[in-house]
Amino acid sequence: MAPQITRKGETLLEGKAGLVKIPIEQMKVGHAGLYADADDEETPASVNTNEDDNDDVIEDIPLLERTGGNTVINSEKGVKAFVKELSKDKSNHLPNTETGVWVYYLTQGIRRDYKRTWEEAPKSIAERIPVTQKSREKAKRIMTKAQKNELLKQMEMKYYEDKIATGEITLEDAFASIKEAFNKKKEIEDAGYFLSPNKTDSVQLFDWKGIINKAHKDELAWRLYSSNKLSIIIPNIIDNYYNDEHKPQKLINEMLKCRMLLATCYKDDRTGQLGRNKVKMEIEGVNTDIKNDKMMWKLVTAVSPSLAQQIGKTHTIIGYHLVQRRTSGDMKPRYLAIDTIKKSTQLHEVFIPDSDGSIHTIRK
Questions:
Q1: Are residues 27 and 81 in the same domain?
Q2: Are residues 339 and 248 in the same domain?
Q3: What are the b/e assignments for 238-254, b being 16+ CB within 10 Å?
Q4: Would you give the DSSP letter of residue 44?
Q5: Cα(245)–Cα(268) distance, integer angstroms
Q6: C-beta separation of 283 from 361 below 8 A
C-alpha cells in the first residue's frame, strides 16, 4: 500500500518511516512550481535595487540609449492612483516619479526571478545625489552644459507636445515632468548656482549679467562688458568674495590671478601659491582684509593713485568686479574692474587698472 500524505503532511501508512513531512500550508506557488517561503513575515524585504541580495545576480542587461524607450501602461485607475501615491510619498524609499516606481519594481522582479539586472541603474531609479551649498563650496561640476540646456527645455510644454500627440505620454505625465524639472532647477539655484538661458553658457556660480543690469537699471548694461570681450568672473567682489565665509576654492584661485588684488587674498590661500613667498604681502598704510567699499577704495587709491585722482570726484562707483579678458594671449590673468556712472553725463564707464600703471577704460 502506498503511503498517503494528509493536508498537514502526516504519514498515515504504518510501518513506513523516513518520509519527509511536507508543510503544505507554508508553501507558495511561483513560476517554477511550489517553493518554501523563507522570508519571515515580520522581516521587511530588501528595497535597495543596487544591493546584491544574491551573488549570482548578473549585471548584463544593456540600457542601450538613455532616451527613446517609451512605454504606455494602460491600467485600472486604482493601480495608477496607487503608483502615483507611492511616488509622492516622501517618507518611503521609492523614486519620486511614477515611471521610477514602475521601473523599480520591474527591476526587483527581474532580479528575483531571473537573477539578472541592468548594466547600470536606469535614470528613473538611479540614486539621487542632492545638490547642496557644500557642492558649490567645493566647486563641484553638477551638470554639463548639455544637461543644463536639456533641463531648461524640460520646463516648457513644447518639449512634450510631439510625445503627447503620438500618445507616448499623457498630458498629466507632461505636467508632472515639468514640475519635476522646475523643482530640480530650484534645488540647484537654492544651492547658489545660476542656470543661464544662454545655450553657450555652462552652469555658473553667479548671474553676473543680471547683477550688472539691476545695478544700472538697464537690461542691456551687461553688453558693455561682452562687446569689449570682457567676462565677469566674480561680480561685486566685496559681497561675493571678501564677505563670503564659505567661498569656493575656485574663486580663491581666480582672485590669486589678479596682481592688483593679490595682497588681499593672502589669508584665503589654501593652495600654497602664496605660501612659497613665506612673507605676507602687504600694502603700506592699507588694511588688506577688505570688508566694505571704503576699505576697497583705500586699496585702489594705494595701488592706482592716478585712477583714484581721475575718477574720485567725477564718478559714482557702482561696483568692483573681477574680470577676464577674452582675447588671445590675455586669457590667464584676472583684472579688477571698477564699474561707474559718470556724474556729468550719467553714462556707464568701466575702469580697469593694471599693476604696470596703465588704465583700460571702456564707455557706453
A1: no
A2: yes
A3: bebbbebeebbeebbbb
A4: P
A5: 10
A6: no
Q: Based on the fold, state whether residues 94 and 172 are members of the same structural domain.
A: no
Q: What is the pLDDT of residues 230-284, one digit of tens each?
A: 999 999 999 999 998 878 888 888 998 998 898 888 666 555 555 444 344 566 6
Q: How far, in Å, CA of 135 to CA of 264, rounded?
A: 25
List Cα–Cα distances, 46 to 51, 102, 108, 121, in angstroms.
8, 17, 9, 17
Q: 117-153, pLDDT tens digit by residue?
A: 888 788 777 766 566 566 666 666 678 888 899 999 9
For residue 123 the three cell numbers come to 535614470
Grid cell digits, residue 241: 568674495
Give the separation between CA 306 and CA 312, rounded to whole angstroms: 10
Is residue 192 within 8 A of residue 251, CB to CB? The reply is no
Whether the CB-CB separation of 151 and 143 falls below 8 Å is answered with yes
Full domain range(s) for residue 55: 46-118
Residue in 63, 150, 139 with CA at minimum distance from that of residue 107: 63
Residue 198 lies in a domain: no
Residue 131 is classified by DSSP as -
